[in-house]
Design a protein that fits this description.
Chain B: InterPro entries: ABC2_TM (IPR013525), ABC2_TM_bact-type (IPR047817), ABC_2_transport (IPR000412), Nod_factor_ABC_transporter (IPR051784). Chain B: It is found in: Cell membrane; Membrane. Chain B: Keywords: Antibiotic resistance, Cell membrane, Membrane, Transmembrane, Transmembrane helix, Transport. The complex is a heterodimer. Chain A is built from eleven helices and 14 strands. Chain A is of the alpha/beta class. In chain A, strand 1 and strand 2 form a beta hairpin. The longest helix of chain A is centred in the middle third of the chain and has 16 residues. The two termini of chain A are 25 Å apart. Chain B has one domain. Helix content of chain B is 78%, strand content 0%. Chain B starts with a helix and ends with a helix. By secondary structure, chain B is an all-alpha fold. The chains are: A alpha/beta, B mainly alpha. At the A-B interface, helix 2, strand 6 and helix 3 of A face helix 1 and helix 4 of B.
């Protein structure tokens, strides 16, 4: 998958402004950014759903503009919303998509059977999808993207709104199809999701690539988890700073001391008992993971500005 | 050749989805049918005795073709709703990113909608027959009348697709507020001759009036005729109006659908 200098404007506002991307076959690329950064626009262009205003893009060896039908035969799109039909059963949903991907009746029902098995839906195959749990619906939606074992899969925020257990299920399925050779372009607002799945992370900001690299590379740029201690009394701030170590940062206005930690739970235990030993009564102690805002602050030097996207 | 075959297969699969919905969730079908049936009862039995048919005749006989027409006209809201919901839920995007025939998507929509409307007409006709409505010029002419009604429905499919791609489902569900008066400023419930001057012109030239008047003529029901050119050429207009709609909204829908990628 290759994109060079993509430009796209909506009502005079640039949604993509010289976006470049190169994803080697069989790898997962995580597209990270806040709402309005242009993630969805980029995916829609690569999936042939949007025309581009400038630049060029190739997916699975075909130009997305001139050879759109050839691209469509090799890609699958899984959007933010579920396209599962509630009234149809899981099996019927898959057979319908199989037929729409021009499999014969026999092929479509064989393929549906395989996918139900693979995605752990065999037991619920003949139940209507409206009785499925959120995770099951998501898996059924994913399964319907795999009808033709696409060479490229676009996943647009696949786990937004799912609970942790269901997210884990979706991640497992994505890893499985990648192991079978599918190239995946994943957009997400969650750092840990990109961390779990992506070989390469591209951070987007205002329609452009702000940074890219492996998850480890980006994390080292960011620094890891931090522990934060809030006290009632400003006199206690130096004591707390002493407990947290040399690189502790003290925020006098917020009565807060924070420091980087490596081992989350061990650090929490150590700090709690050390504070108790010194007789400091903390108002709050918390562990904080770097958020996407932190990534942004670190990489672009400014806060993410949400921009209206159509 | 393959393109034609896939267009047919794909449209059948898209239509089948709707048909399964109706079979499994008949509540919605009944809800759609309840309104015209209740209307026939209210207008036929409650207001009926106070209603005059211009030129004389039984009000139930006059009313039924009008109800057929209103039911057909309301179909545009049903099409709009389905189209805007598919677009809103990302189903339309999935269709567009798949190798399926793009003609199939809309052909399937019109097929399912025509089946649905035929069913509504059938139930309404049975209800009318039970209440004293009848057709008097033979089965063939009656079938031509139903064909003209479905021809209007086909034209409304294209208006519905265009508007459905234009608006959100919430707006689509509010469309009956406009549809309702549009179906009343016509010859559906009252003869235009009994309306004030300007409204009379509107009602006479309302495309729905042409189809309803043509149906009355073919069924042999009262209230046919009038001084206006539109009323005297209702058969011709019942063919022409829908043709004009198709000619305008078919290309508009195609352009709108293509421009989803803009």
């Amino acid at each position: 998958m290759l994109a060079e200098g993509l430009h796209k404007r909506f009502d005079g506002k640039a949604a993509l402004d010289g976006f470049d991307l190169a994803v080697p076959a069989g790898t997962v690329c995580g597209l990270l950014g806040p709402n309005g950064a242009g993630k969805t626009t980029a995916v829609r262009i690569l999936a042939t759903l949007l025309r581009l205003d400038g630049g060029r893009a190739e997916v699975a060896g075909h130009d997305v503009v001139r050879e759109a039908p050839a691209v469509r035969r090799q890609v699958a799109l899984n959007g933010q919303q579920s396209t599962v039909d509630d009234v149809l059963t899981g099996r019927e949903n898959l057979v319908m998509w199989g037929r729409l991907y021009h499999l014969s009746k026999r092929q479509a029902s064989l393929r549906a059977e395989e996918l139900l098995e693979q995605f752990g839906l065999a037991d619920a195959a003949d139940k209507r999808a409206k009785h499925y749990s959120g995770g099951m619906r998501r898996r059924l939606d994913l399964a319907s993207s795999f009808i033709t074992a696409p060479s490229v899969l676009f996943l647009d925020e696949p786990t937004t709104g799912l609970d942790p257990r269901n997210r884990g299920e979706v991640w497992r399925e994505v890893k499985r199809v990648v192991a079978e050779g599918t190239t995946v372009l994943l957009t997400t607002q969650y750092l840990d999701e990109a961390d779990q799945l992506a070989d390469q992370i591209v951070v987007m900001d205002t329609g452009r690539v702000a940074a890219q690299g492996t998850p480890d590379h980006l994390k080292s740029k960011l620094g890891g988890d931090r522990i934060e201690v809030v006290v009632r009394n400003s006199d206690e701030l130096p004591v707390v700073a002493g407990v947290l170590g040399e690189d502790a940062e003290v925020d006098h206005d917020a009565f807060r001391v924070s420091a980087a930690v490596v081992d989350r739970v061990a650090a929490l235990t150590r700090v709690t008992s050390a504070l108790a030993a010194k007789g400091v009564e903390a108002e709050d102690i918390a562990l904080r993971r770097p958020t996407l805002d932190d990534v942004f602050l670190a990489i672009t030097g400014h806060k993410a500005v949400a921009e209206v996207q159509s | 050749m393959n393109a034609v075959r896939y267009a047919a297969v794909d449209s059948w699969i898209v239509a089948k989805r709707d048909l399964i919905h109706w079979v499994r969730e008949p509540v919605r079908v009944f809800a759609n049918l309840a309104y015209p049936i209740v209307s026939v009862l209210i207008f036929g039995l409650v207001f009926g005795s106070a209603m005059n048919v211009f030129g004389g005749g039984d009000y139930i006989e006059f009313l039924l073709p009008g109800m057929f027409g209103q039911t057909i006209a309301f179909g545009v809201a049903a099409t709009m709703m389905m189209v805007s919901m598919d677009a809103d839920r990302g189903v339309t995007d999935r269709f567009r990113a798949s190798p399926m025939s793009q003609t199939g998507v809309v052909a399937g929509r019109s097929f399912a909608d025509l089946v649905n409307s035929s069913l509504e007409l059938l139930v309404l006709a049975l209800c009318g027959l039970a209440m004293g409505w009848s057709f008097h010029h033979g089965l063939l002419k009656a079938l031509v009348a139903f064909a003209l009604l479905l021809w209007l429905r086909f034209a409304l499919v294209w208006i519905g697709i265009y508007l459905g791609l234009l608006v959100k489902p919430e707006a689509a569900s509010a469309s009956w507020m406009f549809l309702f008066p549009l179906t009343m400023f016509a010859n559906t419930f009252v003869s235009p001759e009994l309306m004030p001057g300007w409204l009379r012109v509107v009602a006479e030239w309302n495309p729905l009036s042409s189809t309803v008047a043509a149906a009355r003529e073919l069924f042999g029901n009262p209230g046919v005729g009038g001084d206006s050119w539109a009323a005297q050429n209702s058969l011709l207009l019942a063919v022409l109006w829908p043709a004009v709609f198709v000619a305008i909204f078919w290309p508009l829908s195609v352009v709108k659908y293509r421009n989803l990628s803009r």
